[in-house]
Design a protein that fits this description.
Layout: E1 2-7, H1 8-17, E2 20-21, H2 33-45, E3 52-56, E4 73-77, H3 79-89, H4 99-108, E5 112-114, E6 125-127, H5 131-135, E7 139-141, H6 142-146, H7 153-163, H8 169-175, H9 177-188, E8 194-200, H10 204-213, H11 223-234, H12 238-252, H13 259-271, H14 289-309, H15 324-334, H16 342-355, H17 363-375, H18 379-388, H19 411-423, E9 451-454, H20 458-463, H21 468-471, E10 477-480, H22 482-488, H23 494-500, H24 505-510, H25 524-531, H26 536-561
Parallel strand pairs: 2-4, 3-8
Antiparallel strand pairs: 1-8, 3-4, 5-6, 5-7, 9-10
Length: 562
């Protein structure tokens, strides 16, 4: 490991000349103009802006976006800051995709500085452009100053700036030039400011551990990200031409999956392991990876299609996305078997989610289960081995639906509530469409996100003295479309919105609303009485108790039918 100090202008020069580049696992430039402004202001004031972390990647054979001479150093922590420095100095980094996009970025990230503030303070004032500042000669683009290569050139720049302040050139030169020139010189010194740079030269398998133990300001680099880079090392062009297009397509369809899901699915299918340290390096060679990737891609697509048939069309619905890995491996290993049934696999998947088996640090559990899937004698034996490791019973108790729907530990029950309603064909209370379907009756093919609707509105229950935990009970939650939830029913008591939108008994039954709570046809008096308009507190407790029983019964029937 090497530690050195690089000047800002040197960092920019390295980025432009490809001495530095960004690896496959780095995200695009996502800073907003305000963050770039804060960076230049911090540099001007001498504030620390954090160290940069580089990896000597001399074995790497493919840059993220560009082709040509190969890089020797990858920016792992500091990409956003490096790109911002390039914008401030007006020099396009090697990895930026096109000159046209770069010119647009230069305009968007054009930080300005007031060289003659009203109050003669110690520090200059920085801001983003607006019509007033663009017309004010006191405001100058920071880039105009930092782009100057030699300090001697600042004299002409300062003279040119001062001429814009007043028509009396001689007086301006006498009074304003020394002040402006000094400020321009001080701002220009940002180019010379030194930033700590740490360079690591370890083997790729050690890099993730090192990154994880260092204090990074940006996104934490995970082990799978580094393995993805190793795969790119051995397979030039694979990430850009095959992996990223597939991943981006899934993202657009509601499945925002990180690299670990793809990488561990590949190792699970191709090597029977999810712990990456147990996978030999030659696994990622060009002789093996294309075939393994093709299998993994097809399996992932097939399983997500099957999940969509049950209404699961987004990663956000799942209590743990990691649970997808053994589900993918199970399908890859046994989908061709005579006794394979996806419903059985889904049942195990749901119970594993209830158990929380793959939440948190789940690599050990994932590795055990992936190994068991591959070593089983048949599909049923694989499911039995997986099920034996679970610590939960398949039955759901009614009391569980009295828990809060918005707690992390209850995400499984929230998913189950949604699955039950989806499979019952429950309809939206206003527009009448089935949950998960559009108005034409076609299923929403991807990315559907349920709107969690409080049947008894929160405001009504708070006024009635109901505790927050009881207000948000799962038994008070159903799934509706966004427009209905937000615009139509928000804040209205059920004895008003049910007749307003003509919500029938059949529709209420679809949402497992107890029969003792009247529908729109009952008339105003019975509606108010059955829903407790005069005694909300007592009637609400009766409602959630009865509905929790119905939900538990339906949930157990759903799991049993799988």
């Amino acid at each position: 490991m090497a530690l050195e100090q690089l000047k800002v202008k040197e960092i920019v020069r390295h980025a432009v000349g490809k001495r530095m580049d960004i690896p496959e696992f780095q995200r695009d430039f996502v800073w907003d103009p305000e963050q770039v402004k804060f960076l230049v202001e911090s540099l001007y004031r001498g504030y620390p802006v954090g160290s940069f972390l580089l990896w000597d990647s001399s074995a790497y054979h493919e840059a993220k976006t560009a082709e040509g001479e190969q890089p020797s150093l990858w920016i792992v922590d500091g990409q956003q800051r490096t790109t911002a420095l390039c914008l401030l100095l007006g020099q396009k980094p090697y990895w930026w995709p096109s000159a046209d996009e770069w010119n647009k970025a230069l305009d968007r990230y054009n930080v300005m500085v007031n060289l003659l503030p009203d109050e003669d303070g110690e520090h200059l004032e920085f801001a983003l452009p607006n019509p007033i500042r663009r017309r004010d000669p006191r405001w100058v683009s920071v880039r105009r100053i930092l782009a100057v290569d030699k300090v001697e050139q600042l004299t002409d720049l300062a003279r040119e700036v001062v001429k814009q302040f007043t028509a009396d050139t001689s007086r301006a030169m006498e009074e304003l030039f020394p002040k402006v020139h000094a400020r321009v010189q001080r701002l220009w010194q940002i180019r010379e400011q030194e930033i700590p740079v740490v360079t690591i030269t370890h083997e790729v398998e050690d890099v993730a551990v090192i990154f994880g133990r260092l204090n990074q300001a940006g996104t934490r680099v995970k082990e799978a990200d580094v393995i993805l880079a190793l795969a790119a090392v051995r397979n030039p062009g694979w990430v850009r031409e095959h992996y990223l297009p597939f991943r981006n397509d899934l993202d657009e369809r509601g499945w925002d999956l990180d690299a670990g899901i793809f990488i561990r699915t590949m190792t699970g299918i191709g090597h029977g392991r999810a712990r990456l340290v147990e996978v030999p390096r030659d696994f990622w060679n060009s002789t093996r990876l294309p075939e393994i990737w093709a299998r993994a891609r097809d399996v992932i697509g097939a399983v997500l299609k099957q999940l969509a048939e049950f209404g699961i069309m987004s990663a956000d619905l799942l209590p743990s996305v990691n649970a997808l890995i053994p589900l993918f491996v199970l399908h890859a290993r046994w989908s061709g078997a005579i006794n394979y049934r996806f419903k059985k696999a889904l049942r195990w998947f749901l119970l594993a989610s209830k158990d929380g088996r793959y939440s948190g640090s789940a690599i050990t559990s994932l590795n055990e289960d992936v190994r068991a899937i591959n070593e089983a004698t048949d599909f049923d034996a694989a499911l039995q081995a997986l099920s034996q490791r679970l610590r939960v019973l398949p039955e759901i108790g009614a009391e569980e639906f009295l828990n809060r729907y918005d707690r992390a530990g209850n995400r499984f029950l929230r998913l189950l509530l949604y699955l039950v309603l989806f499979c019952r064909g429950s309809r939206d209370w206003v527009d009448g469409t089935c949950i998960g379907y559009d108005r034409t009756g076609s299923p929403i093919s991807s990315g559907f996100e349920p709107q969690w609707h409080h049947i008894y509105p929160q405001s009504l229950l708070r006024k009635s003295g109901i505790a927050a935990d009881d207000i948000h009970a799962l038994a008070n939650i159903t799934v509706l479309n966004e427009r209905t939830n937000v615009n139509r029913l928000a804040g209205k008591p059920p004895w008003r919105y049910l007749p307003q939108y003509g919500v029938s008994r059949e529709v209420l039954d679809g949402h497992l609303v107890p029969e003792s709570f009247a529908d729109a046809t009952a008339g105003d008096e019975l509606l108010r009485k059955s829903w407790g308009a005069e005694n909300v507190k007592a009637r609400y407790r009766d409602f959630v108790a009865k509905r929790a029983d119905l939900l538990a019964q339906a949930a157990n029937e759903f799991i049993g039918a799988l």
